[in-house]
Input
Amino acid sequence: MTDRLFPSLPADPQLLDLFRLFPDSVPPLLDYHDRLLRDASPLTVGDREMIAAYVSGLNSCNFCQGAHTIAAGVYGIEETVLAALMECVDTAPVDDRLKPILAYVKKLTQTPARITPADAERVYAGGWSERALFDAISVCALFNMMNRIVMGAGIESDPRLRSAPEIQARRRRMGSPGPDPHQAEPSYGKLAQWLEPNTPE
Output
């Protein structure tokens, strides 16, 4: 018997370990991450990473919440902001325009069948376009899926609790802000280079 959901994974598995075990669908999945989180959008790259971390927190997915809190930090979102969001969106120190979007993704995560036109209207009343709402929905949907892949495979450890060099390496892998906060160079697709076992990260 083993205490791991996937006996082929090492103790304290990381997402890369799972991707190396089942690599076939990983490159298009990573490309989709770049499309949603790095391509041009009405939402900033930081906003989208914040949504990823927030949705993951709602799902109690320690790995994804930690990983995307780190990524959001690279793009200007302080960890204290994410912590405040988990307490209450209404009082969190984020732009008031973002609060209807965050309320929307919270409801979509927790009670998706209860989404109504009124929820969308609050987003539009904040000055957002349909594209902005669709991008927020897409990031929300991606991380509801990723949370279930991660948790279903027994990946539990929070990357924020790893060593300082490992955290810095993760930050570097997330790229860096460019002149336009609404887009950045792709970074997730580059992770595919580590799919071969024993490739140094």
About this structure: The CA atoms of residues 80 and 162 lie 19 Å apart. The mean pLDDT is 95. The chain has one domain: 29-175.
